[in-house]
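Hey, resending since the last one bounced:
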Amino acid sequence: MKNVLVIGSTGQIGSELTMKLRREIPGSSVVAGYIPGAEPKGELLESGPSAIADVRDAAGLARIADEYRIDTIFNLAALLSAVAEKRPLMAWDIQVNGLLNILEVAREKNIAVFTPSSIGSFGPETPRVDTPQDTIQRPRSMYGVTKVATELLSDYYFHKYGVNTRSVRFPGLISYVQLPGGGTTDYAVEVFYSAVKGEQYVCPIAPDTRMDMMYMPDALDAAVKLMQADPSRLVHRNGFNIAAMSFSPEELFSVIRSMEPSFSWRYEVDPLREAIAASWPDRMDDSCAREEWDWKPVYGIEETCRDMLKNLRIKLNKK
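The structure tokens again:
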């Protein structure tokens, strides 16, 4: 990777991934792709080039690829699970039709493409515990349907045209840098803000519903490490299970309370989000990622909680 385009650079993952690539890849040029209304600001804007990159505009993507001699695209454009359920046609247009535009540009210009999949690509018929790398994927949300489609399209373009496509199935992601935008696992970020502000948290997920989660530094490392991995070792490509920790809301809140004794919470379960969460695995088996490109997370639940609380106290100016 030398000339990289991050599509969705101002989103939860993209904002941090863009800065990580700029810091850690010597001599790289990392273009922050964005859509109007979501322009880069501050360090993200000032530290490198940026360009309008709408996945629905194939000609625009081709122009960026030519202008910046792009060799790698991180495609992070997506409507998250709860939002996609309310706007399914838009979700399909962005996540599937948009990916087709990217893959066509990649095919024509020999560009590698990373398009993340998700724990949401699984459904209620999938084994819930130690979910295998290769297993049934019959999601019941539009978000999940689009993620299965992106896995299949990415594999198709690799086998048919030799496009260097790779992806991981992200679990729920936790970060203090930027709030998420309508995902089923958002509670695992929102709760930390309530704890630091001294507010009672109202949780939309049932107390015993378990889901895979990951701290953002591990997620970013996974994306970069997979794109740098030796292709001769890759048996799979789209997408790899990756896992770090699995917990229920009640387990997470108990750990937070051990660090913030005044923290309190209650439940007002959102039927839509709970139905989506209940259809997802409790924990994925990530042994293929560990064997094929040496994946290994750093953060568990206690390390994540400690770091989130510390950094949010600084961000929110709370002692």
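The CA atoms of residues 255 and 302 lie 7 Å apart.

Sorry for the duplicate.
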